[in-house]
Write a structure and sequence with these properties.
mainly alpha; 43% helix
């Protein structure tokens, strides 16, 4: 997947923050307790208005961490069953909805 320039810059910023947190325990603690202020000091400027920052420590190697991002907005919404078929041609279980059945099964 090819990244846009904006995405590449965002990754570079994120990697700088992560490296500093790995190298500097005080920075990491500050980042966890007050991310906005810590990043303003780190970058030497105010952060854009309107967004909060949530930082979680995901450094325990005994865990696999999953981040659930914001759901993309779309004017066109497919039903889960149709979307799953469009992705790979098969039905994927709909978590939380036990009534879903495979189209190949008889009712």
């Amino acid at each position: 997947m090819k990244l846009t320039n904006e995405q590449r810059k965002g990754q570079e910023v994120l990697f700088k923050i992560i490296k500093e947190a790995w190298d500097n325990e005080l920075f990491k603690e500050s980042l966890l307790s007050d991310p906005e202020k810590t990043l303003e000091v780190f970058f030497g400027r105010n952060l854009p208005n309107g967004k909060k920052i949530k930082v979680t420590d995901q450094s325990d190697p005994d865990y696999l961490y999953i981040n659930i991002p914001v759901k993309p907005y779309s004017d066109f919404e497919m039903k889960d069953k149709d979307l799953n078929k469009a992705v790979d041609g098969s039905d994927i279980p709909n978590f939380g909805n036990n009534k879903q059945k495979n189209d190949n099964q008889n009712p």
